[in-house]
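Input (PUB domain-containing protein):
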Amino acid sequence: MSMYNRHTLLSTLEHDVNVSVTEKTAAFKLLQTILKNLVASPTEAKFRQLRLSNPKIQSMTRHTCLLQYLQMTIGFQTTQNAEGQAILQIPDALVLDATLMQEAYSTAQTIYQRLAAQCPTLTKSSSSVSTTSSSTSSLPLSEKQKARLLAEQKEAAEKEEARQARKRTAAQIKIDKHVRQTDENWKPSVSAAAAKAGDAMTTFRDKFGEN
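Output:
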C-alpha cells in the first residue's frame, strides 16, 4: 500500500465533519498508543492483538478508515482467540517493518496533536490547570511563611559566606605553601592570637634551650 493511500485513510477521518473533534481525538490517541507499543516491542504478543470486545477498540474500529488502516498498513487480521472472542491480530509469521511502523506512529501522533489542540475538553482542562497554578503561586504569604522564607534566605547566605571563606583559606594555604618552597627568606607570620597577646609563639626549645 502506497504512502499516499495510507495517509489518505487517516486524513479521511481527521477531516470528517460528521465526526466530533472529541471522538476523532480519542480515536487517534488510541491509534497512537497501539503504534507506539508496536514500535517499542514489535514482537510482543500482547501488542500484536486487539480485542474487539474492548469498548475503546470498538469505538476506534467503527471508523472504517481506521480499521482498514490497521489491516492494510500494519497487518492486523480479523480472527478469534482461544476463548472464541473476535480479535484483530498480527500473524506470528509477519515481521513488522521498523521504518514503516515509526512513520505510521509519527503520522498518527501528529494528527492526534492537531486534533487535541482543537478539542474543547482538552483545551479547557489545560486552561484550568494553568489558571489554578497561577492563582496558587500568586497567593499572599502569611507572616509565618514570610519569617520562614527570610530564615531560609539568611541560612543560605551564611552557608555561601562560609563556603567562600573556606575557599579563600584554601587559596591562601596554597599560596603560603608555594612561598615556603620557593622563598629562602620566608618566615611564618604572627598568628592573630599571638598578635593580640603581643607575643609570638615559641617552642619549648626556644624557651628553655637544649637541656
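Confidence is low (pLDDT under 50) at residues 129-138.
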